[in-house]
Design a protein that fits this description.
By secondary structure, the chain is α+β, with helices and mostly antiparallel strands. It is 62% helix and 14% strand. The strands form 2 sheets. It has a 3-stranded antiparallel β-sheet. A 3-stranded mixed β-sheet has the order 2-6-3, with no helix packed on it. The N and C termini lie far apart (141 Å).
């Protein structure tokens, strides 16, 4: 081979390499392509093909069967988990519905108990009203004081049964802002800022003030 023929052959090989690189995808920079890496990839693919070709068909078949069985098992497990999830979601919805129904029943029961308690109180107060009405039916000249006092005691008994207590402070006691309402400051014989007189008693029920006692307070001289 002459020197000219060798140069042409080398030029042809270089041109072929250049053509392969230039035909690379648009997003691949031809300058970054390593032809040795390409050759190694082709060699690896070839080795894989040769290894599969050299494998025992029965062994390959067993491996494929094992893979299929494993895939079927995993699919079955997924279906089971889906079923369990759906069952749990259904149970949760039922529990939520039961809880809402329970709350409604408790609310209704409390309302019924409150209504019955109110009815019982009104029934006992009606007896007091009847006694007052009978007292007013007496002759104008009749002394009804005893009857009124008896009726008042009856009303106090009704209130006491409901745990209602009278707030009736004595003159000279200190003022309790949570239980006493000061109407005015007046001159009195009591110490300054002490209760001088009670204008109207108050009431509390189960340690809750229903109505403050109205009082006057001794002013400083």
């Amino acid at each position: 081979m002459t020197d000219q023929d060798a140069a042409e052959e080398q030029s042809t090989e270089t041109a072929g390499d250049t053509e392969d690189v230039e035909s690379a995808p648009d997003d691949v920079d031809a300058a970054d392509v390593d032809l040795d890496d390409v050759a190694d990839g082709e060699t690896a693919d070839q080795e894989l093909v040769e290894r599969v070709a050299d494998s025992d068909p029965e062994a390959v078949a067993r491996e494929l069967t094992a893979l299929r069985n494993r895939a079927d098992s995993l699919e079955s497990q997924v279906e089971t988990l889906d079923g369990e999830t759906a069952e749990l979601e259904d149970k949760l919805k039922r529990k939520q519905a039961e809880f809402q129904n329970y709350k409604k029943r408790m609310k209704k029961r409390r309302e019924e108990e409150k209504q019955r308690a109110t009815e019982d109180l009104v029934t006992r107060v009606l007896d007091v009203r009847d006694n007052l009405e009978r007292a007013l039916d007496q002759d104008e000249d009749a002394d009804i004081r005893d009857g009124v006092e008896s009726t008042l005691r009856q009303l106090d008994d009704v209130l006491a049964a409901e745990n209602v207590e009278v707030i009736d402070p004595q003159p000279g006691e200190g003022v309790d802002p949570t239980r006493h309402q000061v109407l005015a400051r007046v001159e009195s014989e009591e110490e300054p800022d002490a209760i001088a007189d009670v204008h109207r008693p108050g009431y509390e029920m189960a340690e809750k003030v229903l109505r403050e006692a109205q009082v006057t307070v001794s002013e400083e001289e």
